[in-house]
Each structure stands twice: as C-alpha cells, then as structure tokens.
Specification:
With 1001 residues, the chain is of the alpha+beta class. The chain has 31 helices and 35 strands. Strands 12, 13, 14, 15, 16, 17 and 18 form a 7-stranded mixed sheet that branches. A 4-stranded antiparallel sheet has the order 8-7-20-22. A hairpin with a 5-residue loop joins strand 34 and strand 35. It holds the Pfam family Anticodon_1.
C-alpha cells in the first residue's frame, strides 16, 4: 500500500502487549492528509530505542573539534527497586545537558551506572524473603542470602535500564558501570590498601550508630532524628524480624540508688529513660553545682538490681537541670557517658576493676546479653521487666512523660539506633577534606548554585573519622586479614599478598567478614570511569579531571559529592574528579511534601509515560511492605490526587513536566496532573503548526519543485531573527545551567513568535492564494521549524524528531547540528515588530475600554518615533490581528487628530489613535444598554433576596442557628446588590460620556 500511495508518510502497527510500534518513513514532502489530525503518541514514539541510540551519537560537524568533549556520569540509582520521579528529574536534566552539547556539534559521553546499595538492598531483600518465604536473616546462611541479593539486584537493574530507555536517556551503555563489578572490586581494594599504607585507614574502637534490625553499623547520614509523637508510641520492627510492634517511649523513670556506708534513708535519685541498661552501669555522676557535690564526691552507691558498688564522680558535662540532676553512667551505650567516664576511669576502675571498661548489656540484635539476669530478652521487653523488678523492691520512685525526648532511627528500617563502642575500620578524613576545601575556596571547583558551596564547605569541616565497616554480606568484603589468636591485622590486595607481607609459615589468617560502606565504592566512580585501574601505581593518573562536570541532587552533596572530591584528589595526586558541580533541588509533590511511599506520593515515571489506573495504583499499595496505617494514608492520598488515575502522556510530556521547573531551587514541587495537561496541549500545538506548514507546502508544491524564488516578506526575516535570538539565549541559559529558562525561551518562541504572530501574518496569503508569498512562507516556516525542533529535541526528543522529519523532507534531526547564524539577528527589525505587536495590544485594550467587541473594525493613526518606511510593511499585520486599518504614520509628537480616541503604546515611544464613527457609537450604545439592563435586574434580584432573608431572621419562631445563617445570607445578598449598583453607575457614566462624544462637532 505504501508503494501505491507516494504521498503517504507512514505505516505502523501495534505489537501485542509491548505497545511498540514499527514505522516506515518515506523521505518525501508530505501532503496535509498524510499527517493524522491530532497528536499521535504511538506514531511519535515508534522505534524509540533506535531513536535514542542515534541521538547518543554526536552529529557530524565541521566545528566540532573546537568544542571540548562533555563527559559526565549518571549518579548510580540503587538496585533496590524501580526509579521514581526524583530519578526521572536527574535523567531529564543530564540528558538535556548531553543532548544540548551534541546538538551544538560537540561530543558528549554520558556514562550510566548502578549502585549495589549495601544496606538498602540487603534490607529490602530480607523484608521480601520474610514476606514471601517466612525466612529471616538469622535462619539463612551467608551464601543463600548473597545469592538472593544478586538475583534481586539483577532483576531491578533490568527494570531500571528499561525505564531510562523509555525516558529517552542517551546513555552510553557500552560504558556502564556497577559498583559491585570486578572493576570496582579491584579499585576498592586498591584504594583501601593505599589509604591504609598512607596511615589514613586504621582499626580502632569507637562509637558507631548500630541498627539492631540489620545487625550493622550505619553512617550518620542514615540516621534520622525524630521527635516522639503525642503519647510516645512508636512503631518499630519486631525483635524476631517478623513484623512490627508499638513501643512506648519518652518516659523518664526515677530510680533510688542506696548509699553505701550510710543509713537506709541515705540514697540518690537517678532519672533515666533507659532503665534496661542498669546492668551496664559503672558509676553515678553529678554536676559540681549539686548541693551535695562536696559531700558525695568519692562516695559510693549500690546498683539496686545486681548489688554492684558504683562510685560517684563529679563532672561539668552532667545536665544539672535535667531529670534529678544525677546521671547513671553506661559508657558502652551512651556517647556522653563514655566522654564523662574517660575523665574518671581511674576512680571508676578502682571500685569496679578493669572489667568495667568493657561492661555492656545489649548485644548485636538489641537483646540483653549473657551475664545479665535477663539474658536473650529484647531491650524493650527487658525494660518492662526491669521496671517491675525495681518496683517490687521499692527502688522505682516514679515515672513521668518527657516531652523533650527525641530518638534516633535507622532510616532503612525505622529501628531505634543503639550507640555502641566496637572495633571497626575508620578513615581519617581531615587531610583529605582540607585539600578538597582548598580547591573549593580557590575556585578550582565550582558549585552551582553557589549557595550550595557553603554546604559543601560545612561538610569538609566535618572531621570525625568515617566508619567504613558494615556487618553485611552484600558489598565489598574488607581486604584485611586477622592473624588468628592475636589482635594483629594485615591489609593487602589478597590473602596471598597478606601472607607474603607477614613472612611466616603456619599462621592462620581469617579475613574480616565485614563489607565496606557503599559510599566508599561509589566515591570511586570518577576514578573507575576515568580508567584509574589502567594506570601504574604511584604515577599521577590524570592530567585533567576524568569528568567534565557532575550533576546530582542536593540531598547527596555531602555524602557522595564531597567524598568523590576528597577520595579522587587523595588517590590521584591532587587532581579533581570534575571542575564543576551542578546540584538540583529535592523533588516534592504539588503540596510541597517530600516523596514517600507511606504518604502515597511516589510516582513511577512509566506511570506518566504509559498511564495507570487508580485501581492498579491501589493494588500496588496493597501488596507493598507498608504497615496497615501507612497503607491507609497512601491510599487516601492517591484517591485524592489521582481520582481517575494518570492519563497516558508519553516521555516528552514527562520531560516537559520536569524541566519547566527551576531545578536549581532548593525544592522542586511537581504537580503531575496540571503540568501533564499543559505538556499535552503543547504537543498538540506543535502538531497543528506542522499541519499548517504542510498545508502551505501543499498549496505551492509545484512551485517549490520548480525552484521558484517567491516573494520574501519582512516577517520572514523577523522570524529568522527571532529564531536565532531565541536559540542564542537558550544556549546561554544552558551554559549557566538555567535549564528551565532555556526551555521557557524556545517554548515562548514557538507559541508566540511562530504560532501567534508569524502564522497569523501568513493566513491572508493562504486565503487569497498569493503563490509567490506562500513559496517564501513555506521555505521560511519549514527551515525555522526544522531548526527549532533540533533545539527542542534537547527537552522533548521524540515529538521533535518526528515533526522535524515532516518539515525537513524526512531527514533525521540527528544528522547535523544546529546551523543557525548570529547574522540572522536584526535587533532593529525585532524592535519594530515588538512595537507593532504592542500597538495591537493597545488597540485591543482601547476597544475594551470603549466597550466594543475586539472584532469591531476601526480606522487609526499611529504616532511613532520609528521611520514610517520601517513600519509600513507591518501595517497589514496590525489590520489582521487588531482589526485596525492604519493608513497614516506620524511622528510621535505629531498633532492630535480630531474625532479619535488616543492611547499610549506600553513600553514604546509611540501612541495610537482610533477613529470612533457613528457605527461604533450605535454598537457601543447597544452593548451598554444590554449591560445596564442586566445590572439593574441583578440589583433588584439581590435586594429582594436580602429582604426575604431579613424577614426570616426577624421571625420570633426562628431558632438562633437559623437566624444567624439567614443574617449571613442577607449580608451577602446586600453586598451583591451593592456591587450591581456600582456596575449600573459605571455603565451610566460610560453612556453619558458616549452621548457627549456624539454631540461634539
């Protein structure tokens, strides 16, 4: 059928469940009938994979060699699940940067990657295994859990790749990285060994944030500080890992500690929110300002449960105004307690012996450990038991709510963090951070927006050692071997190397089972992608930064960006990983709420691209791992925000929704529904423009083939000038990472300059059949739209590629870069047309003031400081757009004309005069008469209603509630009547003014 229909552009068919389209494009100028009447999403996205692959290749360009290549990496999404709208924003921004560089003729390499996400992935897998197989981590072996994590990560990686492909991401998949692949494994080992030999990594005993639910230490950034809700009830993971439970928190318990060597009435009252740690008490502390400080210092009390003697120490760190002002010290479970004990160990050890230095009572799983009477009982269950025991012996004085209590939660599981002192591997970051901070301060490293630079400097001033150890199976195992039976550790690339370094036969080496913090491996992304492992050890690996820039979200500026800078500079001999950092804001919903599954506002990008029903969204929530309360909240939010689900919009509209925002602001609030409608209307606008271009082309198809020159009009030159100005402005905005301004620029160009002005200026030629004018119009419109779509493809690639083919004889927009010239820009001409368009606005405003319809035809005089010859060719445009026939152009200070209404032209040194003739007076009078009748009727109606409400309100039988309701209605009716009366007076004034003008000679 295609061979039989030479004017046909396309043929496509739907493919079963995949909804993919196969299209055949005939490289031929098309007739209007070959383009569907309305925007066709299936047609536009046909063969999207091939389109995206082609777009990732830089177009041929003579000047390309003069441009520096662009090289950037995709911040690796976690393989924990599907991408959400926040990831989509990152993809849209970075794809726009890469596409813009290519469309200018430069080379852009955008490297994709995935993050194995140690804690996050293992936590999700463990929850999945419990929900589906009723297995816990403790019941599974290391290898079985590792295999489950690998399978889970592989499945999600496939889904993520598909999501990014559907969004049109022009990634170079042949360069893909994965933070748990062999390249990263080698790089992680090399980095760890190097930093250890430099004396920056060491093993020591320090406090860490311990999450009992996942049995691992976590970073400060994975800890959430939250205030307790009213009532102090918090939902926490069950100790057996099989669900959740509610725990009462925020209660201050007062416990009596009896003095030793005194009478029974001599005691100290100690307030604590953690009575279960009583078995780990090593001392009691009071502030120097305590009334009995002098008397109590050096004395002892007895632990009420296990009878141990505890010394009393005096220390200024005790908060005298909190609780009873007396603090029990459990240094193994509290940082402040450990700090105080550090100043008093001599006296504490003298009483309790050396064993008190290691005394603790809570194990890895959050249970009371062996050696206590409550061995194996969960810490919160033990709390109730301890309180019962204290109550039974009269040692529990009372309990009160502590409204000031806040708790630290594990962001992965929601469990309460247990501070613990354990041996771990730590990285001393002080030197690294100082070097990185210097690069930021002296301008070698720039941050956009600049306000984020201060936040990064704050991070570099953080000098606490970085805990690298994680007690997981999923991740890079630490390259360190312990010599069995000793405290000695050997760090090297392999066990063989470790044995060689030891130099002894017969020793047993045991590798550290812990893995490294995920951020350590992801911090090496620039090095690995830059080929660090191919460099000779000890040599300067890079003569220039491996990446041109980094773009990511503000939420990981410190935890990822700062660490990449510090690690790369240290391991590369001072070279930055990238000279420029762009940080976009955190995505929130239309109500300004952070995206959260429990809130129900997390959106899958494919739900916008393909559409999704409310029932399907509800089904997903029902099958999720959320609690019943969270499910109810999520479902309520979905039903409110998406009562009819989400309509199918396509990738272009999704990108429209994302890139219309100022992405550099701190928060990017996205209303999916509202903006998706706007994006869809924009696609239809583009479709109609191309259909109009096809209609013009069809009218002069013969003349175009024969090469007729046509009649160039001033508006053709103006449109080319506006195109070049808009593209140049868009380029400047893109260079400044003002993506929304760049997009807004070309969006405004096509809506205003092309659709509202140029197309309107050509319709008279189309109606009259002015062939010579239409030939020039067709060539101008096709050339301008082709260049426009090349730039629009940066933001909306699929619709741009398809419509470009319609106006460019079927050619792909990726075959050549932008080809506009700055010589097209004519500021004087643009200024003249701007003035003419302002005259149109002034004419419409004056008509509205006179009370006549916009379609009313007037004669007019234009007063302008511009040369009449410059304006003369544009007078027909004023006539067409404003229905004002101007046959005279006078100097701006020229004499006023009689019988004309005058108005200024906003923003220009010009004014307009319209001649009001008898036909206008009659039309104005007819309109005003109708408006007056309506205003009078409205006034009478509302006065009658006010009287009715007044009568009801005065009725003695009317109860108070009904009286108040009718009095309110009466006042509202009176206000409406007053408004109608003012409108009546305004109209009568206009009618008097009209009569006066008609009587003037």
């Amino acid at each position: 059928s295609l061979r039989k229909s030479p004017k046909c552009l396309w043929a496509y068919q739907m493919l079963n469940a995949g909804r993919k389209c196969f299209s055949v494009t005939i490289r031929r100028t098309l007739s209007k009938s070959s383009l569907p009447k309305t925007f066709d999403l299936d047609l536009v996205t046909a063969n999207y994979e091939e389109q995206t692959r082609r777009a990732a290749i830089s177009p041929r360009s003579e000047g390309r060699s003069s441009m520096d290549p662009l090289r950037l990496v995709l911040p690796p999404p976690n393989v924990t699940g599907r991408l959400h709208i926040g990831h989509a924003l990152t993809v849209a921004i970075e794809d726009a940067l890469a596409r813009h560089h290519r469309v200018k003729g430069g080379e852009a390499t955008w490297i994709p990657g995935m993050d194995h996400a140690g804690i996050a992935t293992q936590s999700v897998v463990e929850r999945f295994l419990w929900r589906n197989e009723k297995k816990t981590r403790r019941e599974m072996g290391r290898e079985e859990l590792l295999k489950s994590c690998e399978q889970f990560a592989s499945q999600n990686a496939t889904v993520i790749r598909d999501q990014m492909a559907r969004m049109g991401a022009t990634l170079h998949w042949d360069s893909e990285y994965y933070t748990l692949d062999q390249r990263f494994s080698s790089a992680v080992t090399r980095a760890f060994v190097t930093l250890h030999r430099d004396g920056l990594i060491s093993r020591s005993k320090r406090f860490v944030n311990w999450s009992p639910s996942i049995c691992s230490s976590i970073s400060d950034q994975e800890v959430e500080k939250v205030d307790l809700p009213t009532g102090g009830l918090l939902s926490l993971p069950s100790p057996d890992g099989k669900g959740r439970r509610e725990v009462k928190l925020g209660v201050m318990h007062t416990i009596r500690y009896e003095m030793i060597y005194g009478n029974k009435s001599s005691f100290l009252l100690v307030a604590t929110t953690r009575p279960e740690t009583i078995f780990a008490d090593v001392a009691i502390a009071i502030h120097p300002s305590h009334p009995r400080a002098g008397e109590l210092k050096g004395r002892r009390v007895r632990n009420p449960l296990d009878g141990r003697e505890l010394p009393i120490v005096v220390d200024e760190a005790v908060l005298a105004d909190k609780g009873t002002g007396v603090l029990k010290l459990t240094p193994s479970h509290d940082r402040l307690d450990a700090e105080i004990c550090g100043r008093h160990w001599e006296e504490i050890v003298r009483v309790g012996g050396q064993e008190v230095r290691e005394r603790s009572c809570i194990d890895d799983y959050g249970r009371l450990r062996g050696g206590t009477p409550l061995d194996g009982i969960d810490r919160f269950d033990a709390r109730a038991t301890v309180l019962d025991q204290l109550r039974s012996i009269g040692a529990l004085v009372g309990s009160i709510e502590d409204a000031t209590t806040s708790v630290s939660l594990c962001s992965r599981t929601g469990d309460i963090i247990e501070p613990r002192q354990i041996h771990q591997w730590f990285l001393d970051c002080r030197e690294m951070h100082a070097e990185a901070a210097a690069a930021l301060k002296d301008g070698r490293l720039s941050i956009h927006p600049s306000t984020q630079g201060e936040r990064l400097l704050d991070w570099f001033e953080y000098t606490e050692p970085w805990c690298l150890s994680r007690q997981l199976v999923w991740g890079h195992q630490i390259p360190a071997w312990n010599i069995e039976g000793t405290n000695e550790w050997i760090v090297d690339h392999s066990e063989e190397d470790a044995r060689g370094r030891r130099g002894e036969e017969g020793v047993t080496l045991r590798r550290d089972e812990d893995v490294l913090d995920t951020w350590f491996s992801s911090g090496l992304v620039p090095l690995v992608c830059g080929g660090w492992m191919d460099k000779i050890v000890g040599s300067a690996p890079f003569v220039a930064p491996p990446l041109s820039l980094l773009e990511t979200g503000t939420d990981i500026a410190g935890i990822w960006v700062a660490r990449m800078v510090a690690l790369t500079m240290r391991l590369s001999g001072g070279q930055l990983p990238f000279p420029r950092v762009i940080l976009h804001g955190i995505v929130k919903d239309g109500q300004g709420r952070k995206m959260s599954k429990s809130v129900g506002n997390v959106i899958d990008p494919l739900d916008v691209i393909d559409g999704v029903s409310l029932a399907e969204m509800e089904r997903r929530v029902g099958e999720s791992a959320l609690s019943e309360q969270e499910k109810a909240t999520s479902l309520s939010s979905l039903r409110t925000r998406f009562p009819r689900g989400i309509s199918r919009c396509g990738a272009d509209v999704l990108r429209f929704v994302l890139l219309r925002h100022d992405v550099l602001s701190g928060e990017v609030s996205i209303d999916i529904g509202q903006l998706a409608e706007e994006g869809s209307r924009f696609c239809n606008k583009l479709w109609n423009l191309v259909a109009y271009a096809a209609q013009v082309r069809e009218r002069v198809e013969k003349e175009l083939k024969e090469g007729e020159e046509g009649e160039e009009h001033v508006m053709d030159a103006w449109l080319r000038s506006r195109l070049a100005s808009s593209l140049r402005s868009a380029d400047t905005h893109m260079e400044n990472t003002e993506i929304h301004r760049a997009f807004g620029n070309i969006h405004a160009f096509v809506r205003s300059a092309v659709a509202d002005v140029y197309v309107e200026s050509t319709k008279s030629a189309l109606w009259s059949g002015d062939t010579r004018r239409l030939v020039a119009t067709s060539r101008t419109l096709d050339a301008v739209l082709a260049e426009f779509f090349r730039q629009l493809s940066v933001f909306m690639p699929f619709v741009s590629h398809f419509l470009h083919g319609q106006v460019a004889d079927g050619k792909s927009l990726y075959e050549a870069p932008l080809s506009y010239s700055s010589s097209w820009i004519d500021p004087s001409l643009e200024g003249t047309v701007d003035e003419v368009l302002a005259v149109v606005d002034a004419a419409r405003s004056l008509k509205e003031k006179l009370g006549v319809p916009k379609r009313s035809v007037f004669k007019g005089v234009l007063y302008s400081s511009r040369p009449p010859l410059a304006i003369a060719p544009l007078l027909p445009l004023i006539s067409h757009l404003a229905k004002v026939s101007i046959d005279t152009v006078l100097p701006v200070d020229g004499p006023d004309t009689k019988d004309y209404e005058h108005t200024s032209v906003h923003g220009h040194d010009a004014r307009l005069a319209l001649k009001v003739e008898e036909c206008h007076h009659e039309e104005m009078k007819r309109i005003l008469d109708g408006q007056l009748t309506n205003a009078v009727n409205q006034k009478v109606l509302y006065l009658q209603k006010a009287a009715q409400f007044e009568e009801i309100a005065r009725d003695v039988k009317c109860n108070w509630g009904k009286r108040a309701q009718n009095e309110k209605k009466r006042e509202k009716a009176r206000a409406s009547a007053e408004k109608a009366e003012k409108e009546e007076e305004r109209i009568r004034t206009m009618m008097r003014s009209l009569d006066e003008r008609r009587r003037l000679p």
